[in-house]
Amino acid sequence: MNLIEKVKHAGIVGAGGAGFPTYVKLQSRPEIYICNAAECEPLLYTDYYVIKHHINDVIKGLKLAIEFTGAKKGFFAIKKKRKELFPLIEEAIKSENAESKISLFELGDYYPAGDEQSLVHDITGRIVPQNGIPIDVGVVVNNALTLAQIAWAKEKNEPVYKRFVSVVGEVENPFVAIVNIGTPFKALIDHAKPKSGTVLIEGGVMMGNVKSPEDVITKTTGALVFLEENNPAVREKTASFESVTRFSKAACCQCTECTVLCPRHNLGHKIEPHMIMRTLNYGLDSSSYIAQAAFLCCQCGVCSMFACPFGLSPKRIYAYFRKRLKEYNIPAEQHKADPFNEEKKVPTKRLMARLSILHLERKPEFIGEFGYNGELTIPLKQHIGAPGKPIVKEGDKVKKGQQISKCEEKSLCVPVHSPINGIVKKVTNNFVIIGS
Ligand code: SF4
Ligand code: SF4
Questions:
Q1: What is the pTM assigned to this prediction?
Q2: pLDDT per residue as tens digits for the range 332-354
Q3: Torsion-angle region of 390 (φ positive above 0: left; ψ -120 to 50: alpha; else: beta)
C-alpha cells in the first residue's frame, strides 16, 4: 500500500475538528505543507500534550507528507506562548533530518490563529480566494495530531481508534487524556467533576457546540469544555434563532465593530457582518453579495463573542443564510488583505476576559490512556463525506484496531475501527456498539 492507501485505510481525518479525510489532501501537489499546532481556542491543551509526548511522530508525519506530495517546504506553526515546547520541536526536526525541509513558525497569541486561511496568510502572505481552500494557493494544512496519525499508519499500520482530548473549564479536575473513540462523554465527566449548573461544549469555547453527556468521543473531538450556563459563549450557542433575530432588530446600532474585527473581512473577503444585520433588520436586498457572504463566514464567533458590544450574533445569522442559500455558487476571486489586518487581530487574553473565562486558564494534568471498560458507541460517520457501511454483525468478536466499516468505491469516506478486543453488541446504519 502507498501512503494514500495506508492513510485512507487507517481512517485518518482532520483531528483539529474539521474531519476532512486526510488521504484527499495527500493527493494534491502543494508547494508548502503546514503543521497546524496553533490551538487557538482558549483553555485547550490537546495539541500541547500531543507535541510534548509525540513530537517525533508529528515531525515524521509532516516529513512524510512533504516528501509524498513533493512540497518544497514545511512549516510547524505554533504560538509563541508555547515557547517551552520549542526546544523539543527543534530537536525533533534535527533528529528526523528535516532541517532543510521544516521550519518552526511562531504565531502571535490571537484568535483565530489556527483558522486555515489566517494561518496561510500569516506564514506565506498568500490569500486563499473567496470560497477557496488553501491548495488554491499551493498550500496544504494538517493538524499536529493528524500528522502523527499519518506516521503511525505508515510505520505501524495503526488505524485511528483513540485520540487526545482536553477536558477543561469549570471542572474540579481538568485533564488531558488519550481516549478511545466511542467512549461516552459521561465517563470523562465523572472524572473531571464539573461544577453543578454548567453546560457541556464539545470542541471549544468559540466554535464548539453544546452537547449531551450521552454523546461519544469521535475522531474530531479535541475537547470537552464546561462553562457556567450564563456565560456569554453559552448564551450565544443556546439562544433560539427567534431571540437572536429579535435582539438584533432591537439593538443593532450599525456600529460596524463586527466588520472591523471579522478575520475573513480583514483578509479582504467580501464579508461585512454589520451588513447582514442591516439586511435582516430592515429587509434590504438579500440576493446581493451581502447574503452570499454567508459562504465566506468561518463561524469563528469573533463578531458575536468579542466585537459586538451587545453580544448580537451575525455568526448565527450567517449560519441561517448559509443554510438557505446553499444553491448559490460564488466564483472565486483574488483580493488583498486589509492593510490593518495585524492590528485588528483579537488577542486571546482579551477574548478570554470578554468571555469571563480568564480564571479558568490552568494547565490540565496529562493522565495518559483514559481507563474505561464500558461499551463503546462507534459512529460510522465521523468525517466530512459519506458514512461507511458496517461489516460486522451482532455477536461478532472483534480485535483492537480491526476495521468494522467499509466505504463505497470512489466515495469521500474513511472506515472506522474497533478500539478494543470485544464483542459487537449492536449494529445500525449509523453506529456500532462494542463491549467486552
Ligand atoms: S463568525 Fe463573525 S467574525 Fe467570524 S468569520 Fe463569521 S462574520 Fe466574521
Ligand atoms: S457590532 Fe453589534 S451592534 Fe455593531 S453592527 Fe455589529 S451586530 Fe450591530
A1: 0.90
A2: 456 778 888 888 899 999 999 99
A3: beta
> Which atom of ligand 1 approaches the CA of 264 most closely?
5
Return the domain boundaries, the chain. Answer: 3-156, 162-231+357-369, 237-354, 376-435
- In eight-state DSSP terms, residue 184 is B
pLDDT tens column, 261-320: 999 999 999 899 999 998 888 876 655 678 788 889 999 999 999 999 999 999 999 998
Q: How far apart are CA 436 and CA 428, in angstroms?
A: 19
CATH of 376-435, one of 2.120.10.90, 3.40.50.150, 2.40.50.100, 1.20.1290.10: 2.40.50.100
304-337: pLDDT as tens digits: 999 999 999 999 999 988 887 776 565 545 677 8
DSSP state of 303: I
Most ligand 1 atoms within 8 A of CB, residue of 237, 264, 272 to mutate = 264
Distance (Å, whole) CA 12 – CA 145: 10
Residue type, 116: E
User: Using the 8-state DSSP alphabet, how is residue 398 labeled?
Assistant: E
Q: Which residues line ligand 1 (CB under 6 A)?
A: 262-264, 271, 273, 297-303, 314-315, 318
Tell me, what amino acid is at 99? E
Q: At what angle do helices 86-95 and 46-69 cross, to 10 degrees?
A: 30
Nearest-angstrom CA–CA distance, 419 and 414: 16
Total number of residues shown for the chain: 436
CA of 414 to the centre of ligand 1 (A): 30
CATH 3.40.50.300 fits 3-156, yes or no: no
Atom 2, ligand 1: residue with shortest CA distance: 303
Pocket test for ligand 2, best of 236, 245, 249, 254 (most atoms within 8 A of CB): 254
One of 1.10.260.40, 3.10.450.50, 3.30.300.30, 3.10.20.600 is the CATH number of 162-231+357-369, namely: 3.10.20.600
